[in-house]
């Protein structure tokens, strides 16, 4: 993904994604538009989840998590911070799914400052390695979002959620966490 920022104790990520580009991304974002790319991202590594038997179950689960917001006790902002926390801990602060949900958190209204503070709080309980990896993932994401947005500002269709999720999946492909107990 190019030059990656080094993780430091500095929690100021505001300079990595300009406000203009953040607003351009948010203008093209729809919570509902994230459901299909999320379904595809979740089922692609697990072909069994896309079979005629499992796919309706996965779609129903995603519908509960990401579908009709009026029936949920959590707001989109609360849901994304919860998911981001779980992914940062379980994926050791790295990987495409964390990248997707960090992006989604930004789109539903979390500021880079709020997200970096959340990642810092997580590390108090999960360790400095999670903080370093999470900060690296977040810094890389913000840098790439700024570049993608600047490169595509005149083509808003390239800033839609499905295009951004594709970029995140491609960009973080080599940064996927390994299952516990694996050797690599």
Automatic annotation (TrEMBL):
It comes from the Bacteria. SUPFAM superfamilies: AhpD-like. Residues 58-135 form the Carboxymuconolactone decarboxylase-like domain. Pfam families: CMD. InterPro entries: AhpD-like (IPR029032), CMD-like (IPR003779). This is Carboxymuconolactone decarboxylase family protein.
